[in-house]
């Protein structure tokens, strides 16, 4: 009798399994997928050894102004006054520990990601030569903001076509010392900031990526195209080239803006240990690069695993929302300091993002690193003398 019952069980189990699997497969085939992922070939991630050796140095940072700001992506200072832009569309001034809203480019309501396009999302921020704030708003474009009166002035609007195409996801900017030229990134011509995960997962090279705005002639030029999620930008100290972080490809490109190589481009750092977000100067003549996601080696890198498997990405995004998928990405914050030639000098880690989560920028000021975040409700400050 036992072989008969086990046979019945097997048949019943298989029938049940099929009855679940077939409709699920059918549904998955029929469901629309919001993205059209392309296979990407990444090299095996670098080993986390030497200057990249994992540590917990970022956990020495202190959280400041907790729950008084949301998602302070980029940070600048004028003297000892700090400025940042937040996820609820505000441009904020922090003076003597006091948090104050000075301006907003969009208008309310500001709540979830569906409000972002009207609310605005200030991302990259810089100080111009006349001490005004230059702000890249993901949805509205490039703006100049008076830090004292809060008056805003549009420089480049996302509504104006540039070489026949509108800007879709204005991300970061860097400015020459004389204020004449602003270099900025448009991360995609298809996706907006609220869908940045789609942009990473789709892996397409669809944006016009590095642009130049001339503040005298008011002209915008496209300098580089075909990057996969260009993000943070930084002019070199000699102002002869601009570095552009290519997030999806975990690398940094270099575009020459003056000198013999003008108009040419090459690779500055390839195959980084994480996905680079913003890049800023370090006091040693090198660069600080912030990464909100790492590619662990040794270990399992989800990004690398999925990179050449578009069909798995399709399945995932047919069934799950971006918010849900985000929860599967391991929290790990990493900041690296690069030398002027792009070699790794040192790295600060926070495995599991215990103190510093979702780090988007490392801004050095007065012996401290101020760490911005695109999601956390605080700014972190790390004392560089004591790490």
From TrEMBL:
Primary localization = membrane
Identify this protein by name. Adipocyte plasma membrane-associated protein
Family assignment from sequence similarity = Belongs to the strictosidine synthase family.
Q: How does it sit in the membrane?
A: Single-pass membrane protein
Where the record annotates domain Strictosidine synthase conserved region, the positions are 171-259
| Stretches that traverse the bilayer | 12-31
Q: Where in the cell is it found?
A: Membrane
Q: Single GO cellular component annotation?
A: endomembrane system
Instruction: Name the source organism.
Output: Orthonyx spaldingii (Chowchilla)
Molecular function, one GO term? arylesterase activity
Q: Which gene name does the record give?
A: Apmap
Which superkingdom, per the lineage? Answer: Eukaryota
Instruction: Name the Pfam families for this protein.
Output: SSL_N, Str_synth
Alphabetically sorted, this entry's keywords are: Glycoprotein, Membrane, Transmembrane, Transmembrane helix
């Amino acid at each position: 009798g036992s072989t008969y019952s086990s046979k019945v069980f097997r048949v019943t189990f298989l029938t049940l399994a099929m009855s679940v699997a077939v409709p699920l497969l059918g549904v998955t085939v029929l469901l629309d997928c919001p993205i059209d992922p392309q296979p990407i070939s990444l090299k095996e991630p670098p080993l986390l050894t030497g200057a990249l050796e994992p540590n917990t140095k970022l956990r020495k940072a202190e959280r400041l102004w907790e729950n008084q700001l949301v998602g302070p992506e980029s940070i600048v200072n004028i003297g000892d006054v700090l400025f940042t832009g937040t996820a609820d569309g505000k441009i904020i001034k922090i003076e003597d520990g006091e948090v104050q809203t000075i301006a907003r480019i969009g208008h309310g309501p500001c709540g979830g990601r569906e409000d972002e396009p009207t609310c605005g999302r200030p991302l990259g921020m810089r100080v111009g030569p006349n001490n005004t704030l230059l702000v890249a708003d993901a949805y509205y474009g490039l703006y100049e903001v008076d830090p004292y009166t809060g008056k805003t002035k549009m420089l480049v609007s996302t509504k104006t076509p540039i070489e026949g195409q509108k800007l879709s996801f204005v991300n970061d900017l860097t400015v020459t010392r004389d204020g004449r030229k602003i270099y900025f990134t448009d991360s995609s011509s298809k996706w907006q900031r609220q869908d940045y995960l789609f942009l990473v997962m789709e892996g397409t090279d669809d944006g016009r990526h590095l642009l130049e705005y001339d503040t005298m002639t008011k002209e915008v030029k496209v300098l580089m195209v075909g990057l996969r999620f260009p993000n943070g930008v930084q002019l070199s100290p000699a102002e002869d080239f601009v570095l552009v972080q290519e997030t999806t490809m975990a690398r940094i490109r270099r575009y020459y803006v003056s000198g013999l190589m003008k108009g040419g481009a090459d690779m500055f750092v390839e195959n980084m240990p994480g996905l680079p977000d913003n890049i800023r100067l370090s006091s040693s003549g090198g660069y600080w690069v912030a990464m909100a996601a790492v590619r662990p080696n040794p270990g399992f890198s989800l990004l690398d695993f999925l990179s050449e498997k578009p069909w798995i990405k399709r399945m995932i995004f047919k069934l799950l929302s971006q918010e849900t998928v985000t929860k599967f990405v391991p929290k790990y914050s990493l900041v690296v300091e690069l030398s002027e030639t792009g070699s790794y000098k040192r790295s600060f880690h926070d495995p599991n993002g215990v103190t510093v989560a979702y780090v988007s920028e490392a801004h050095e000021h007065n012996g401290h690193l101020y760490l911005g975040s695109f999601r956390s409700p605080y700014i972190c400050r790390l004392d560089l003398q004591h790490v």
